[in-house]
Amino acid sequence: MKSQEELEDLREQVAETTSQIVKLVAKRDGLARRIGEIKTKGALPMESDSVEDALYRRVLQECHDLGLDERLGTKLLGMLISESKKAQGIKSGLVPITPMMMMAKAKEIESQGKALIRLDVGEPDFHPPKAVIDAVSKALYSFKTYYTVGRGIPELLSALQGYLQRKYSYRPAENQLMVTPGGRFAVYAALATALSEGDSAIVIEPNWPAYREGIDYVGAKAITLRTSLEDGWEASPEEIKESIRPNTKAIILSYPCNPTGKIISKASFKEIVGIADDAGLTVISDEIYNDYAYKPCPTILDDLPKKYVLTSSFSKAWSMTGFRVGYALAPPETVSKMLKVLGLMITCVPEFIQLGAVKALDCDKEVARNSKAIKARIEAVSKELDKIDGLEYDKPDGSIYVFPQAVDKRFDSSAFAMELIEKKGVTISPGTGFGDYPRCFRMSLGQPEAKLVAGVRKIGELLR
Amino acid sequence: MKSQEELEDLREQVAETTSQIVKLVAKRDGLARRIGEIKTKGALPMESDSVEDALYRRVLQECHDLGLDERLGTKLLGMLISESKKAQGIKSGLVPITPMMMMAKAKEIESQGKALIRLDVGEPDFHPPKAVIDAVSKALYSFKTYYTVGRGIPELLSALQGYLQRKYSYRPAENQLMVTPGGRFAVYAALATALSEGDSAIVIEPNWPAYREGIDYVGAKAITLRTSLEDGWEASPEEIKESIRPNTKAIILSYPCNPTGKIISKASFKEIVGIADDAGLTVISDEIYNDYAYKPCPTILDDLPKKYVLTSSFSKAWSMTGFRVGYALAPPETVSKMLKVLGLMITCVPEFIQLGAVKALDCDKEVARNSKAIKARIEAVSKELDKIDGLEYDKPDGSIYVFPQAVDKRFDSSAFAMELIEKKGVTISPGTGFGDYPRCFRMSLGQPEAKLVAGVRKIGELLR
Fold first, then answer.
1. Is B10 in Cβ contact with A35 (below 8 Å)?
2. What CATH number does the domain located at A24-88 have?
3. Which of A360, A412, B164, B421 has the most Cβ atoms closer than 10 angstroms to its Cβ?
């Protein structure tokens, strides 16, 4: 019975310690509130990364000294910091208008019978390859309509191996690959695997909102590195190095960039990957637009770091957005973790769709045709944009977008986008969807040239 | 400059308080380790729910007194408890063999050219309705191959409204509905919306492993309520009421049950829903097998509680597993939250698949045919099972499974399943995939009657 008494005593101590922790958290909350008041009164900047970083370093050191799991320390501190931000009255960003929200609005207007020029969602207007549709239909009539294993059917994994070998002279092992319901899920699963709550990940902005959404969802923090039109939409490797914080676990790279169309040099890419690798980060390289590249485009496969995830999709190059099929390439142990996430949520991608994707990998001709068409559209749209005085832009190196910026420093692209739909029947995606870019907006080139030109002219008319 | 000094001072206090918190967490860890040692020495039970519950109540009370967010308190305590379990050496459950793992193994063996009798994965062998295949193929050739809005296409939402009206005399508003990539995603999104880290949810076992997987994934704890063959696989409303803990936010109900085939009475269901509703829980009712019900089956739509999510799918009744399409029905604000999860991860379900689902809702004849076939298979398999002395079972009220239990109390269904594949070429799912049921195994009835009978006979042979 002695051990029972000791147990009771220890349990009481645990409860007491828990109480003390809660009280300290409340005390910390009160301190944060007072900090917020002082900052507001003195009009001082609300967030302070250097203060946070010092805290992270101190907590990590203490975990080390006390023999506590560092992940527990990071998570705990992440929780305390986000709590004190709430207490200080720091709002976690406004909800910007994303391309998907614009699409929903456009579809609503169209359903009322109104015709629009759709420059919003990032979706090519090309038909998917006929061979793909034939293959999917044939698979349906052959009853390829049952569950498959989560990783993907062997035919598609093997077709991807051949395709990557042919394209990049890199042949992944089968266990480095997995099929996903779209590139979006590949990105989410990569983030969910690389990051834990309280961690952070670097995103170079402007960029696709899904990166920040995914980072937020897993309870991590996005470190956004702002690039600008004035700097040619390029982040310097030094800036990236400086932005790495004690809790940073990943960086997302994506070239050609959505929305700017920027492609950085292979040398810069290599340097950035090297910096990330040295810092032990996972490099997530989203290469979905790599068939729409009009100058040499780097790929993570050129020189793999220790931790990497390549994400891609059949959506853009083959114009198969609505099929929801993509893939990821990563070290086998990373793929295993990502497969758990996929298995938990969606079991598998439909087999008949996977059989369509197998066929797509043979459709080089259609990919080349689509790529050529987008290049011509970039030229045509650029020519029209050059005529508009109020806009400046960098001619895209690739992707399927142009991202102009208003010369007027007070320009509000969200208000402009709304006015543009109403008065001119043209949809665009406001720049705030991609980062802190109220003066910019994204035009998707997923429309025939004549429509694009007409759209840009209408934009010019409204701007005047 | 005075406010600057005060700021510095406050920041120092924040850092100091953070340190104290970390030190207390480490102290708590040490206490937990000693508790673990005493328990091991004294062979005392490792987990103690009542101790945890008392802690939850104390922390919630303190949050209330100190003006701290209760969710922060729950999350913090959840973190501390899972940390002290690690310190005590409590393992978070072995990884059991799930039906999906058995499927992967079976597919591997089949790919080597060996024929198997597949009683593992929960998938009917029926063909999907021809009208569905025709509709999907037609949609593909009409280029319904682009993005749609996340909630689902209007045609499918409206078809679902009509279907539910016809079937249950309940017509949901459009904003109570959403289309999902399979029932599995509907369940995940429901759990992700109802639960936060540190919360708990009640699962009546044996049950589909996806429930526990989803609860674990969102950082919550599954409270498993064990039912037994001896009690007719039925949990009493009193037991359910007693199992509700201070941090419990949801309960999952699913009738007909996978794997037992149990259907509880409408009165019991109503009583349980009432208890959950009184406790403020979200009732997640997975009604995927409701077309395979051979006695009156309750539905959440009979009497909706305040917080509810109905999840269902086209997979089973229409034999459309490989299409990955399902739906959820919940209050509009819950659906909004679930849509954010879906939008973040997968954008939308392919439009051509949704158009197939629209057609499925007209295929009552095929559903009735499938249901009749399963009923006949239950009869045939039961007759065979009756001949095997070493097994006992409850004849299923519905679903597409039978869940026999070995009379031998030392029976290990995982080892048996492996021997059964090797020696007899028959696959089953071990009972431990569905909870603490090493003596049981699940047989799926998704095979023609003759094969099922042959499979059961081979099981009988190996048992002897």
1. yes
2. 1.20.59.10
3. A360
